[in-house]
C-alpha cells in the first residue's frame, strides 16, 4: 500500500508483510521506524529522501518471544519493537537484564515510546549495541528476496548502502548455566539524565571461584562505532584478584579508537572508559570476596 504525504514531496510505503516491501534497492528511499533519529537529522539539514519505507505495520518485525534455532534457545526481539516495549518486557528482563538497563538509560519516556530497537541498532551509534555485542546477538535482515542471519559484530563492520536491507529481528542466545556470571552496562553523559553518552561500556564475565574464565567487553556511545575490546578481554582471562589494573588501564586505552569534539577530548574519553571498566569489575570482585 502506498500513500502520498501532503506536507512533503515524499511518498511513503506501509507494508504489512515482507513480500510487499519494495524499493529496498532504490538509492532514493529510506527505511523509517520511530523516526526519532531521522527527524533530528532532517532538522539539522540532512536532505530528506524521496521515498520512505515504514516498518510500523510490518508484522514480522513485531513481538518478543523465545525460539529455538538448531538446538540453541534464543530471545527473539522484533526490530519494530519500541525501546519502551523492550524495557517493560519480562522475557528481556529475565534473559537479557543488561539490555533492560540500557533501555532504561535511553532518552526520556516520550522518545522511548516512539524509538525502536531496530532504529537504535541501524543508526550504528545506539546505546543498545554495546550490550548486544557482549550478549553475542545475531541479526536477521531481509534483502528484498530472502532473510539471512548475521552476527551483530560482523554486520557492524560490513559496508552497505543505508536502507538497502531491512533489519527484521534480533536474536540473543539464552544460556542456562550454574557458572557465576556478572554483566554490566554503564553510560557516562555530560549531564545526569536524558543526554547523549560521552561513552558507554558493557561487559559480561564468567567466573570460576574468583578467577575470570570468560570476558566479553564492548564500548560505544557518542559517535563511536561500538566494538568489542579483544585485547582487554585476553588480558582479563585467568585474572581477577591477580590482574595488574595499571597495566589493564593502558591496554583498554589502546584497544579502541576515539575522537575529540568541541566538548570532550579523545584522551578524556579513553581515560573515562578505562576507569569505568576497572572500577566496575573491581567493585564486583570486592563484593564477591565479602560474600
Ligand atoms: C531527545 C532524544 C534523546 C535521545 N537519546 C538517546 C539515548 O540516550 N541513547 C540512544 O541510543 N539513542 C538516543 N536517541 C536516538 C533515538 O531516539 C534512538 O536511538 C531510537 O532507538 C532510534 O529508533 P527509531 O525507530 O526512532 O529510528 P529511526 O529514526 O526511524 O531510524 C534510525 C536509522 O535506522 C534506520 N532504520 C530504522 N529501522 C530500520 C530497520 N528495521 N531496518 C533497517 N534500517 C532501519 C533508518 O533508515 C535510520 O537510518 C535520542 C533521540 C532523541 C530525539
From TrEMBL:
UniProt xrefs under InterPro entries: CO_DH_flav_C, CO_DH_flav_C_dom_sf, Diverse_Substr_Oxidored, FAD-bd_PCMH, FAD-bd_PCMH-like_sf, FAD-bd_PCMH_sub2, Mopterin_DH_FAD-bd
Residue span, FAD-binding PCMH-type domain: 5-177
Pfam families: CO_deh_flav_C, FAD_binding_5
Molecular function, one GO term: FAD binding
Keywords (A to Z) from UniProt: FAD, Flavoprotein, Oxidoreductase
Source organism, top-level taxon: Bacteria
Matching PROSITE patterns: FAD_PCMH
Protein name, entry field: FAD-binding PCMH-type domain-containing protein
Amino acid at each position: 500500500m502506498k500513500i502520498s504525504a501532503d506536507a512533503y514531496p515524499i511518498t511513503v510505503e506501509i507494508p504489512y508483510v515482507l513480500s510487499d516491501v519494495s524499493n529496498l534497492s532504490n538509492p532514493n528511499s529510506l527505511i523509517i521506524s520511530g523516526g526519532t533519529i531521522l527527524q533530528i537529522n532532517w532538522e539539522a539539514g540532512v536532505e530528506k529522501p524521496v521515498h520512505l519505507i515504514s516498518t510500523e505495520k510490518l508484522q514480522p518485525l513485531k513481538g518478543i518471544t523465545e525460539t529455538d534455532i538448531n538446538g540453541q534457545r534464543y530471545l527473539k526481539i522484533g526490530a519494530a519493537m519500541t525501546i519502551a516495549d523492550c524495557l517493560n518486557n519480562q522475557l528481556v528482563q529475565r534473559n537479557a537484564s543488561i539490555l533492560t538497563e540500557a533501555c532504561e538509560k535511553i532518552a526520556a519516556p516520550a522518545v522511548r515510546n516512539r524509538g525502536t530497537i531496530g532504529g537504535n541498532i541501524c543508526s550504528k551509534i545506539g546505546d543498545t549495541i554495546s550490550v548486544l555485542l557482549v550478549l553475542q546477538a545475531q541479526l536477521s535482515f531481509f534483502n528484498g528476496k530472502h532473510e539471512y542471519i548475521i552476527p551483530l559484530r560482523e554486520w557492524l563492520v560490513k559496508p552497505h548502502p543505508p536502507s538497502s536491507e531491512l533489519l527484521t529481528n534480533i536474536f540473543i542466545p539464552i544460556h542456562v548455566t550454574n557458572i557465576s556470571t556478572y554483566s554490566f552496562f554503564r553510560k557516562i553523559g555530560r549531564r545526569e539524565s536524558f543526554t547523549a553518552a560521552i561513552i558507554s561500556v558493557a561487559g559480561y564475565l564468567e567466573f570460576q571461584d574468583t578467577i575470570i574464565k570468560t570476558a566479553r567487553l564492548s564500548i560505544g556511545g557518542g559517535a563511536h562505532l561500538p566494538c568489542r575490546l579483544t585485547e582487554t578481554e585476553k588480558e582479563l582471562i585467568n585474572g581477577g584478584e591477580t590482574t595488574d589494573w595499571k597495566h589493564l588501564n593502558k591496554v583498554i586505552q589502546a584497544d579502541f579508537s576515539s575522537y575529540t569534539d568541541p566538548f570532550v577530548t579523545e584522551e578524556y574519553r579513553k581515560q573515562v572508559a578505562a576507569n569505568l571498566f576497572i572500577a566496575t569489575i573491581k567493585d564486583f570482585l570486592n563484593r564477591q570476596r565479602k560474600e
